[in-house]
Predict the 3D structure of the following.
Amino acid sequence: MPDIEHAIMAKDLHRTYNGRVAVDGISFVVKAGEVFGFLGPNGAGKTTTIRMLTAQLRPTSGTAQVAGCDIVTQRPDLKTRIGVVFEDQNIYERMTARENLMFYAQLYRVKPVRVQEVLEQMRLADRANEPVGRFSNGMKQRLIIARALLHHPRVLFLDEPTRGLDPVMGREIRGLIADLARQGMTIFLTTHYMEEADQLCQRVAIVDQGQIIALDAPARLKRQIAPQDDQVVVTTSDGQSDTLHLQQAPDQQKLVAWIQQGQLVDIHSPTVTLEDVFIQLTGRSLNS
Amino acid sequence: MKPFAWLAIARKDISDAIRNMYILFAVLLPIGLSLLFGWIIPSNGNSPTLDVVVYDPGSSQFVAQLRTQPNVNVISAASPEDAQQRVKQDAIGALILPANFDSAIAAKQQPELEVYFNSNAGGGGLTAFRQLIETQVWGLVGQSLPAKIVLRDVNQPAGDPLSSGSISASLLVMILIMSLAMAGAFVVPTLLVEEKERRTLLALQVSPAGPADIIAGKALAGMFYALIAALIILTLNEGWQGQWPLTLLVVVLGALFIILIGLLMGSWFSTTNQVNTWSSIIMLLLLIPSWGGMLQLPASLEAIFQFIPTYHLGEVIGLAIGHQATWDNVALSLFVLSFSIVVAFALVVWRIQRETAG
């Protein structure tokens, strides 16, 4: 019985490669219309999970439904209901943007008029007849997103969509994702850019060594490791930065002295990032 | 299996592949060689007068018609030995007809027409003689093969007729099979491996096209290039002669076999460098056996080559172009080709199933 409220339901997914465990009992639910982040360092099992959910790889055990289709037994139907943006810019570079999309329109049996629609939606219409090899990385990424949207998918998988893009292009792609989210698209986003996940996702799962080690809204995850309420971070005029506990007498005196001497430049509550959450949970940084 | 996906992939590959210089070169090379071959070998219209010796004890209509051909000087010989001797001296070739040639043809008994030529003569004259045998003689005697032609080189020991065809027919067979090999064993694996290298295969795998559809699409694109090249080569080189429907059938079977080999290569390899390296080796393994008759290899080597399907491909095409194919002399080759296609297809299916199990 397909679940229309849940776009993705994964239950105890496992995947091993030659005895090495890549995904180790992952379970989660993504609600329809939600932007769900799947975060973790390289090798954590993000790509293996996305490959299982997009019918590229069979799980060793466990089950999952995506857009109402079982990922093992209903692969053909599943493929028509999902769109996938890969971490590699995998497009036919000798072909034009329009030719690329027309090819996929034929595969998905989508009317040619839809090609023009997505070209315009991704602001590529004026360059549609140029070979893709001449495009900037940002334009190529927009074309890949256009390809993924061509057949009106119910769930959009985005695998590291801003990796390798310069900050301006990255911001542009994040803007596009935010637009799609506002239109009610269910988005499954894998990234190792924590700020990106924080900005775009309603909930995130943090994955490490093939397991989900935390799953919640970014704000709630950050609150779990939030510093004590009396903590402040101060910066003095000589460039020194320090964390002070306002309920401890020595720190109180230090702060008063700096104020009186006019040395206090900045004072604010400590900010916690999702990366801090990851470090707190695993004891190491995302890039290690 | 989704035929609309095969067609979409094939259409995409056909238009995209020719923008790849390597693939374009691979498709055009055999056509270019066939043009060069046509240019080097003079056309009949420019041929010098050919001294053709005939031993025709029955004064056949066939020789009478041959005498009417322009640029042909028919010289009568006193005996078959005399005809051979004249060919060794200065004549370009000789025809030995049995006394009952006309009556045997009338009775549809396929009398033997022996053709002697001097392989050491060289030059355009010999080629022109062979073209005369290939084309004009067939035209003189009608559409169906009325006589069994046996070609003999006067420099070869007696009783050692050439297997089939002539130099021009052999060159045509060589270039034809080369065009199939280029499309099948180079273009097809390149199309598949390019998808892997650029990771566009991932996008195809999440589309409605399954692995079998992707393979079928690539095979169709390969078949398109193989057949287009083969048809152009046949047209440029007067290949639509002899038993051309059989030629066409065997070209299609040969293309199918080599394309299946190409698909196996493509499923196995992961980089275009690997394809470039291995396709040269595999093409040689496929081509040399098919050129065996032309290269006059030792009998022992030829015996080994008979286990390679393209040997049979060359044999049947040569016989069909030379209008010498009979069920008896092509049945085994057709069986070997068909069986090889079934085996190669099974291997490709096995590879697809392994991919799908992922």
Summary: The radius of gyration of chain A is 23 Å.
